[in-house]
Amino acid sequence: MRTLFQVALGVIAAIGGFVDIGDIVFNAQAGATLRYAAIWAVPVGVLGIIVFAEMSGRVAAIAKKPNFVLVRERYGQRLSLLTLVTSLVLTVLTLAAELGGLGFILNYFFDVSTSFFIVVGLLLTVAAAILLPFEGIERLFGYAGLALLVYVAASLKLDPNWSELGRGLIPDAKSSAVYWYFVVGLMAAAFMPYEIYFYSSGGIEEGWTERDLTVNRLNSIVGFALGGVLAVGIMVASAQVLFPAGISSPETVGTVAMVAQVPYGEIGLVLALLGMLFAIGGATIDTAFSAGYNLAQHQGWKWGKRYKLSGEPRFSLALAAFALIGFAIASTGVDPVELTEYAVIFSVPVLPLTYLPVLIAGNDRAVMGPHVNGLLARALGWGYFALICVLAVAAPILFLATNGGS
């Protein structure tokens, strides 16, 4: 049981990255449009984020340096400031989308108004941030979000075409631009910058040391693998329900929730909506804290839930400011799904700036001592960094060329 609770950080970080408001719909669109053809992109992305999450957690445990401390140390003043500004813009946009998503999900339950429940979502997020300890936030949102496993059960109950699904694990180099748009988007979702910001800072929040390296490995492997399983479950279930119905572009989380209703009725629908509520709530917490962490770490402020928020006014004010900005954007009525998809695609060019300092620190024996990256970690790290650079170029081009996968 203790081991189960120890992987909560990886679970909440992964759920925020793989099944936030935009990814839930994007995964369903991939299944509804391509059936199983793009599934291979998910395990490729999962392995990559496991490599970098484990590395960033190890750096946090040994060197006591989360991501944006590395950015500040490894880059010059201008480049670190550019990385900070772009990360804050994209993270706050994602935060706004998650708050909008919370409004939609809560309104599905109570049917008052989305605008009203965006306010409720903001208040619940603030209450969780103030009242719950860091470990409590991880466990509540991380484990409750696993109600989305209903999609894995649904995909199995609906009896997929296993031979076709198996072919989806093999890339098709001759496919269309729309196919590659979804492939790049699925991979990019695995590397969302705020995942690594939250994960590395979470290791500091939990006081990880050399003795916690096994816990770090468990978090990175189990947590992010679970996120990948949830993404595949939504894709496969959508391929079996939405594709035959000719719904190639589900636009709302409500449509995606009804996929689970087909095999399991009202229970499936309720489980899907509850899973979405906590997954999107977890992503809201992730993004709000990631923005606060990044600014505080770049500026050298005291930060974190491990101290009382009243004892670190600059960090607390930054959290409040980012939450209010996100709320103001969400309150304009902007489509949260579209907003997240834009944030995913246009965050990809920032990915190299996010992950390079982690890789350099992990390779530095002066920083890591005997826990420096071994040959396999170096090879995977540089290989995935090259892939991230390719994604950084391809994502905006494919987005424009396909009109967002249309």
Textual characterization of the structure:
With about 400 residues, the chain is mainly α. It has a single domain (about 1-400), classed as Amino acid/polyamine transporter I, CATH 1.20.1740. It has helices at about 1-5, 10-20, 20-35, 40-65, 65-75, 75-110, 115-130, 135-145, 150-155, 160-165, 175-190, 195-205, 215-240, 255-300, 315-330, 335-345, 350-360, 365-370, 375-400. About 55% of the residues are buried. The model has no long low-confidence stretch (mean pLDDT about 90).
Q: Number of helical segments?
A: 19
Uncertain stretches: none
Strands, total number: 0
**Would you tell me the structural class of the helices and strands?**
mainly alpha
Cα shape:
globular
The fold-level CATH name is Amino acid/polyamine transporter I
Q: Name the assembly state.
A: single chain
CATH architecture: Up-down Bundle
Cα-based radius of gyration, to the nearest Å: 20 Å
Strand content: under 5%
Biggest beta sheet attributes = none
CATH class: Mainly Alpha
Per-chain topology:
Layout: H1 2-6, H2 8-18, H3 21-34, H4 41-63, H5 67-74, H6 77-110, H7 114-131, H8 134-144, H9 150-157, H10 162-167, H11 177-190, H12 193-205, H13 213-241, H14 253-299, H15 313-330, H16 336-347, H17 351-362, H18 365-368, H19 375-401
Helix pairs in contact: 2-8, 2-12, 2-13, 2-14, 3-11, 3-13, 3-14, 3-16, 4-11, 4-12, 4-13, 4-17, 4-19, 5-6, 5-14, 5-17, 6-7, 6-14, 6-15, 6-16, 7-15, 8-14, 9-13, 9-14, 11-19, 12-14, 13-14, 14-15, 17-19
